[in-house]
Amino acid sequence: MLSSACRRFISSPSAAAVIRLSRAASASPRAAYSSISATEIAERTKRMLDAKEQSGLSYDELASKLGVTNTYTAQLLMGQAKLTSETAIKLQEALPDASKQDIEDMTTAFPMRAFDEEILKEPNVYRTYEAITHYGEAIKSIINEQCGDGIMSAIDFYCDVGTTTGKHGEKRVVITFNGKFLPHIEQKMDDNSAKSPRD
């Protein structure tokens, strides 16, 4: 029989992160990279999520203290974004139970921004992925019409998750992507500063 504490942990976000990232350590492309340890990232993620839980702060509340979006806040705790020195000070103040060493490591390590393909089996993630792919051609067509020939950056980019109330009183999810438009260029010979040699 599992204790009530064990059952609570198994169903917690921390446990989910450990399971997901431990799988990544053995199954994902990140495991093959010699520059990172997926196991260490999984363990640090668990500790950071535990510190967040101990603080009693929601992602929105923590994001307000850090001055970043709620999605970026989650990315920081999960090792998918780099923590700046300025934000590290705010994070330590907001999560006093977080290890100083963990936060320091988050400022010096360069994230390997990969993902375990198993995550696409999770219904919430899959439905978001499905929505983007289903509406993808329409989204591209409107971007082209409004901005020209190019793409939305996912680097100069903001993502925010919120909720609103529908006309029947139901809660609705609102996900905002705010990315810089990057136009495709015409590859003019005179502008090419690194021309290939010709033997």
Write structural notes for this entry.
With 199 residues, the chain is of the alpha+beta class. Among the domains are: 71 residues, 434 Repressor (Amino-terminal Domain), CATH 1.10.260.40; 65 residues, Cyanate lyase, C-terminal domain (Cyanate Lyase, Chain: A, domain 2), CATH 3.30.1160.10. 50% of the residues lie in helices and 15% in strands. The chain has nine helices and two strands, in the order αααααααααββ. A two-stranded antiparallel ribbon has the order 1-2. A hairpin with a 5-residue loop joins β1 and β2. α2 packs antiparallel against α3, α4 packs across α5 and α6 runs antiparallel to α7. The longest helix is centred in the first third of the chain and has 18 residues. GO terms for molecular function: cyanate hydratase activity; DNA binding. Catalyzes the reaction of cyanate with bicarbonate to produce ammonia and carbon dioxide. Belongs to the cyanase family. Its EC number is 4.2.1.104. Keywords: Lyase.
